[in-house]
């Protein structure tokens, strides 16, 4: 429930307060809080309600329609052992069924209209009940109820004034329907809404011109009507950091003070701990090479392996074999002769 408040908060202030409440409630589960803070919170502009309400999404808050299509296509396959041609046939059948259902729903919206959208009290809609879908009419009716709070009535002869439309009102941007500020101005001037006040996505039929040449001169421009913002991970404010308790912070402060008061220990320097193994071996090799050059003698590479440390042409260790005596050397010379 608390995570739902974080996701669907209307303002950034409420969003941060809900996150702080979540961290306080689940303070003993540091692992999950750290995961949420490092994985989801840097890209909160892609899923948090207070951010996505500033983009045109028509009320669609799912991640992608591919997941729904994947689930639908499985119902058209008999089993999981079908071949590729059968999959293509299933996709074609699914698309045909979806198109037929969509056309039937549009035709039903043209014929059948809810009672709240016809008759007395719906004059502000004008011809919209025959031009836009029921979903759009429901959204407009919701904004109309908000606008009625500023209209004098027998129950409320002195209503509160409707404030002017500002950046906090994102209904027109997000849903593509007029907000209650626009409807309030229409009610005062007794002007009905027109189809030009509604985004073309909610229209039941696309306007078809009788002039064939006009469609050639003014072709339909493809626009991206929906989609979530592609934001990069953004830095989070310091107030949203998953902080430790006051006791832990005080303990860390005492530890740092005790470490600073203690004398420096003998041993490896702190900088040497970051050296890599390759640098360590390179230092040893340079030391051995300098010691051999100071002695002024070189040893050829003997028989054996020629890889690794022996590939440099020098022995890494002095020979452990004993020196041969003069009798052995003379016997070898006689054998050779």
Query: Biggest β-sheet: count, sense, barrel?
Result: none
Helix content: 40-55%
Principal-axes geometry comes out as elongated
Low-confidence stretches: 244-250, 269-278, 292-312
Instruction: Tell me how many strands there are.
Output: 0
User: Helices and strands, in N-to-C order?
Assistant: HHHHHHHHHHHHH
Q: How many H/I helical runs?
A: 13
Task: Please name the defining characteristics of this protein.
337 residues; mainly alpha; 13 helices; 45% helix; elongated; Transposase
Describe the model.
The protein is mainly alpha-helical. Among the domains are: about 50 residues, no CATH class; about 90 residues, no CATH class. The protein has 13 helices and no strands. Helix 7 crosses helix 9. It is elongated. About 10% of the residues are buried.
Protein topology:
Layout lengths: L1 H6 L4 H14 L4 H10 L9 H4 L13 H9 L9 H28 L22 H15 L22 H5 L4 H10 L22 H6 L28 H16 L15 H19 L30 H11 L1
Helix pairs in contact: 7-9
Compact overview of the structure:
Residues 286-295 have a biased composition (Low complexity). The protein has 337 residues and is mostly helical. Helix content is 45%, strand content 0%.
């Amino acid at each position: 429930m608390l995570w739902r408040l974080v996701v669907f908060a209307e303002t950034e202030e409420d969003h941060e307060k809900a996150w702080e409440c979540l961290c306080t409630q689940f303070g003993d589960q540091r692992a999950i809080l750290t995961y949420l803070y490092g994985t989801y919170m840097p890209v909160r502009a892609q899923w948090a309600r207070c951010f996505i309400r500033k983009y045109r999404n028509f009320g669609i808050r799912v991640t992608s329609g591919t997941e729904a299509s994947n689930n639908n296509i499985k119902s058209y396959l008999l089993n999981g052992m079908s071949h590729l041609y059968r999959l293509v046939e299933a996709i074609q059948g699914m698309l045909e069924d979806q198109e037929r259902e969509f056309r039937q729903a549009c035709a039903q919206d043209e014929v059948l209209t809810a009672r709240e959208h016809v008759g007395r009290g719906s004059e502000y809609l004008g011809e919209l009940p025959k031009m836009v879908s029921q979903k759009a009419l429901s959204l407009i009716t919701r904004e109309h109820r908000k606008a009625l709070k500023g209209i004098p009535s027998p129950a409320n002869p002195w209503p509160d004034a409707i404030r002017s439309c500002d950046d906090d009102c994102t209904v027109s941007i997000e849903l593509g329907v007029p907000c209650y500020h626009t409807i309030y101005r229409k009610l005062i001037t007794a002007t009905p809404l027109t189809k030009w006040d509604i985004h073309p996505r909610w229209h039941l039929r696309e306007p078809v011109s009788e002039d064939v040449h006009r469609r050639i001169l003014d072709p339909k421009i493809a626009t991206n009507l929906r989609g979530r913002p592609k934001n990069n991970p953004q830095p989070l404010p310091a107030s949203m950091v998953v902080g430790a308790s006051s006791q832990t912070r005080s303990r860390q402060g005492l530890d740092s003070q005790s470490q600073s008061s203690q004398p420096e220990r003998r041993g490896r320097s702190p900088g040497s701990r970051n050296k890599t193994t390759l640098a360590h071996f390179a230092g040893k090799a340079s030391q051995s090479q300098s010691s051999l050059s100071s002695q002024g003698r070189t040893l050829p590479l003997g028989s054996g392996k020629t890889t690794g440390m022996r590939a440099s042409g020098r022995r890494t260790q002095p020979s452990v074999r004993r020196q041969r005596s003069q009798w052995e050397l003379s016997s070898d010379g006689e054998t050779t002769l």
